[in-house]
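[User]
Protein folding is very new to me. Any chance you could explain this protein sequence and its structure tokens? I have pasted everything here:
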Amino acid sequence: MQALQESYITSLVIYEREGWEEVLKGFDLVVAVMAVGIVVRSLCGRLQDKWTDRAVVAVDSSLRCAVPVVGGHHGANELALRLSERLGLFPAITTATGAANRPCLENVAAKLGAEIVNKESSRAVNLAFLKENVPILRLQGPQIVVVDEGVAVLKRRGLVVGVGARRGVHSIEVLEAIDAALAEAGRRRDEIAVLATAQLKRDEKGITEAAQSLGREVLYLSDEVLNAQAPTTASRASDLGLSGVAEPAVLALATKLIMPKKAFGRVTVAMGE
């Protein structure tokens, strides 16, 4: 439990043969310290579909392997990887995209804070992810969109927070800037869906660590995506060949800009939803 407490809210449940129903209803993720065979037999008859079944990871009593049994794309793979990172267990991931260290539709949706509207598209999109990087396009309404079964439609929820920063910025500075922007907009941390910034900021520890503190993902957008936007404010990022960072990142991902770029010390923040 201690190995997971930094990333998850944990509870210890003593195994009882008849207790599975209560556990599956009461927890989003389950680590079952028992043989995979016992887990499989216990879950038989209790599974419905990949979108509603609880993610379950089986761990052997010697703490050597973490096996995502159900819900690989819905938290089990990530949980197995976290156990590997913290305890050295071998993550026996068997989903095609996970085993190949490739993205999957479910994780992309989670990072964007979005809901997959047409869940039947997941098979075609995840097969495509095995071969190539699947583009993510944003359409602003009102529009009518007709798609085939190989196109996933995602519906956004929550705030997109665009972040730009001077080189070497500390995570505390980033968090203070985000909090100040949220206060001005009358919003809260728990409304944040995702942070977004430029690809060139990928190695900026201050942004990465701030996102970890918030429990949110960071999306790193390419120069082409950022420069395709039309920000409302000028930016010093033009020296780097960019139209901007914080505001274009929001414009690329959000439907509506609710706060144009504003500087808070060495950090710039923009917000949209």
Q: What stands out?
A: Residues 171-185 form the longest helix (15 residues). The chain has ten helices and eleven strands. The two ends are 35 Å apart (CA to CA).
